[in-house]
Write a structure and sequence with these properties.
- The chain has a single domain, classed as Sandwich (Jelly Rolls), CATH 2.60.120.
- The protein is globular and about 50 Å long.
- The strands form 3 sheets. The chain has a 7-stranded mixed beta sheet with strand order 1-9-4-11-2-12-13. Strands 3-10-5-8 form a 4-stranded antiparallel beta sheet, with no helix packed on it. Strands 6-7 form a two-stranded antiparallel ribbon.
- It has 7 helices and 13 strands.
- It is about 25% helix and about 25% strand.
- It is an alpha+beta fold.
Length: about 290
Amino acid sequence: MKDCLTLVNGHLTEQQKNAYWNDGYLFPIDVANETQAKNWRNSLEKIECDWLDNGLALPLNTYKRVNAQVVMPLACEIGLHEPILDAVEGILGPDVMLYSVEFLTKEAQTKHIVTMHQDLAYWGMGDMDNILTAWLALSPATSVSGCMDFVCGSHKNEILSHEDSFDEHNLLSRGQEIKVDVANSDKVAVELRPGAMSLHHGLTIHGSGPNQSDDRRIGVAIRYVSAKMRKAGGVKDYAISARGTFDDDSFTTYAPPSTLFSKNSMAKYEEIRTEQAKVMMAGAKKGSEIY
């Protein structure tokens, strides 16, 4: 596992920023110590234990996988964590919006995978460079446990053709996969210790294999956008202002939730999920369990 990058007062150096734009990703970046990462994991697993059969309108997994930041204070705590924002600011600039947070878990010794894909294939974004994903490890992410694999420089492509499989072992909403064979020799394993993260461009081709370890592989995918972001066709979207200022013409903003699954946040969740599903599932031949 690679040593974490050396930042300057918590911020990316010019060399590190250049590496991100050249490769389409940057890792590993240390943003939380072992104790903090363990506390976040424990908090998530307590939510899983307490709320699995607690009368939620949708399966708990849906709330964890789609816009968890709307209804789960833990998701916002992680997404608004200052060391993460310090690194993200180096790529997106000072005006940062928290777009979404999702908890991605592969149980121990399971076949779940994420096929090779580009994030922006279905998001309806008109501006490709003003969005990125931070992927934070809450348990060891290794080649054995099913860490992500990136394809270096692949963000310099346009959006490639994708196919939907809706495979039960695929963690993606549509089981989407690029129609291009990626050789194993072209994959860079993104191994991360708990508390470390990677950053990747929305066009970077990436995926991950099954978890063959004896521990859960728990990650947090956090999407950030610059306040300059514009969606295709002038469509307005939803986000939380994380740092700096924002443009009312681009985003409907909302406050982080104060309690788990409150009545008001659940109503906002349905509003956002319904609107975003129109874009995320456009052209799909069937529905998704999480949309």
